[in-house]
Protein: Transport and
Organism: Takifugu flavidus
Amino acid sequence: MTALILSAINILTKPLGETSGDDAQCSPEEAVSAALQANTSSLLEQLEEDRALGEVRRLREAVRAQALWFSSPTGDVAWDFVQECLMLLLTLARHLSAELERFQQSSASVPAEPPAAEAPPPLSPDVLSVAQQKALSSALQFVVSLGLCPYLAPGVGLPLAHRSAFGAKVQKLCCRTVQEPRRRLFTTTTVLLKVAALPSLAAVVFMQHLNDLMAALCQLGYQTECVKGSDAEKVLELSAEECQACREALKGLLRNIYQPIVIQQLLLLQNGPKKVSIYLQHYATCEFRDGTDARKYQ
């Protein structure tokens, strides 16, 4: 089942060059958009028609029924693609969590026997192969590039255009004005944190995208903007409870992730754009797990 879910992820994240349009006159952004749409359509079609993916489809539908944020199609090709990526990542996380729970229960119920000579211990079902980790990494890169970075405010995080040539194309593709950019950023960030709740998946998520997640949580938890016609400041699009949840999630990352890595990422953020440095001041007084005051590292 794990292999089938990852095969569905591979269908969705197939290299864009393999599905690019035939029109040589289209712009790079139009070619990327056409490829994303083709990959999304290919996934949905195979989920419906391929009997081997029937169980993946059923589990995905169960996850979708609980995903209140999901709305497809939205008319935004990039966001529709991101939503499908997020759905498959949640499907993978739910499946691995269930398999791991069954594995732990069966291990606890079976009396321990002396290990046979040269017999390896049973492998946990949430362990991914190198190829499977590569597929997961590709999906995460698409999600962060299309569903997180474009919705960061100017001055927060490293702009996509500064990362790669593909990032520049994506930034132009996603630069259109949307009604709820912070809601989309909140959706992507919270789903990635849910996926990272499973340790085997957290290693991949945080190894590659910890800096992006911290920047997103800074913005979601602390960004305010003045409402026109009012002197009061109001956090747009998100409720007070959602903003507080983002602040708590950020504190959780600071406490629970290996401290030298956290300090490195904080220094990168504080030495970067001014706006994210301002957000960092709001939580710089929180304590690390060992009781060290974060202000010492400013």
About this structure: Residues 77-109 form the longest helix (33 residues). The radius of gyration is 21 Å. DSSP finds eleven helices and two strands in the chain.
